[in-house]
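cache lookup: miss for this entity combination. No prior model stored, computing from scratch. Input as submitted by user K.M.:
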Amino acid sequence: MRKEHTRLLLNGNHAVAYGVRLAQAKVIPVYPITPQTPIVEKISEFQARGEMEVELMTAESEHSAMSACITASLTGVRVFTATASQGLMLMHEMLHYASGARTPIVMANVNRTIGSPWGFWPDQTDSLAQRDTGWIQYYCEHGQESLDTVLQAYRVAEQALLPAMVVHEAFYVSHALEAVEVPDQTIADRYLPPFDPPHRLDPEIGESWGNTVNQDMFHRHRHDLGQAMERVPGLAREADAEYKKLTGRGYGIIEQYRCDGAKLVLATMGSMAGTAREAADQLRSAGVAVGLLKVKLFRPFPTEDVRKALQGVPKVMVLDRNFAPGTGGFLHQELKAALYGMENAPSVHGYLAGVGGTNVSPANILELAQAALTEGPAANSVWKG
Amino acid sequence: MLQFVVQGRGGQGAQRAGEILANLFFREGKYVQAYATYGGARRGTPVSSFIRVDDKPIRLRCDIENPDIIVCFDPSLLNAALLKGTGAHTLVLINSAKPAGFFSHLGNFRAVTIDAKSIAQANGLGRIVNSTLVGAVVGLLGEPGIDALTSVVADMSPVKQTENVAACLDGFRLVAQGGALHVAG
């Protein structure tokens, strides 16, 4: 099949904006925040040039922006917003509301350190701290993946009726200019049908949301939400496969890179997967059998896929550019839980690397891999730089 | 892979200089990756722009620790952290009216100075030195061609296209033809 696209030099944030344009989101409530701002700036340019028919609303806070997203989504239109760090923190209450109201909002979050102290550095703690809010979460390695994932996220979110977060890191992705293939609108239209939910707020229909319920109704509602989340890995696999048929690009919900016969697998998410890929190649060239497991879909956690990928692998080294005081690296925690009870499960080494945005080079990863190959695993995450 | 670090202060155009170089090499058909980081997000605080250029896709997502070229917009930014990964192979282009030898005590690298501030002012650009400095960088590299560069500079100048192209050409010519430019190392 002929691949129909335009190749542009775009930063990761602008790539997201192109994805949103292709998805033809109709309502975009925003409260701009660094380093997310270029996403909504570009959308504003699209609107000003008449290339996007959209209601771009500026709210007085991120909390209000998310509230507006929920209401707009309930009227049956496609909704987008973007935020980062402090903004996501302020949205927290409404994130739970969005999933409870079953609104398939897609939001881009640009990972940035959370104050205090103040900073603009790449660190995934902001979005990972929202892991229990009922949102689907995708982590992206580069701008192309972010654009492609916005389209995939809409498809999955609207099928599951759950909100989805597309996440990439500050600077390394958000501000990195790279060649990005922007699919033609016809491709996006074939991939993503118009949003037409079974229920909506419409005076003609007369439905309402958010009523007071009894315990049994609440119980059933939470159970339904859980069942919707359980459908997501399958929907996301299918959405990725269909996208690949149309564009030639697919990512999987996890990716295994050079894992055949690996005695050590590096596991990470987001931009660090790129650097880890380079490190795995260097180790393989030096005769050390090392592979990479990139976790793209973090919520729901792809437990089944991860267990299958790590079957027979003796050791896993987790690189977490995020940190929860008292529990450690998020991926480390999740991976340990996912492997619990598995026969011949690998030993899991959790390393905190790049927390706060510190640099992690291939040379650093080679050193860590040597450490993992010689050390025994610790129950808790270990600070490594 | 060719790796650049452009170091400036907020408001000087270091980020835009990185974008100009990225666009230039992108148009030449190369794979590029360029991003900037800024600690303070305000004028006057340090801004670093990192540019990688290669013939194959670039996968690294980390800082450039061993640059081939450093473009320094302000000599006060030539600190140990910036110069840590430099060596005899590193070319450090400094915006300064002083001779390059003035900076040779800072390390074992090839220093080149250019008075970009005066060139920018002579061209009516005030303290925006990025167009002059990218001209000098391409002059030092010897590739891609100056016509390709001036076309990118013209396209990417939000205002004063003619002045920016003129300053870019001045920077290029000083290097290519040997002008009031100082080389040491």
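stored under new cache key. The first strand of chain B starts at residue 2 and ends at 9.
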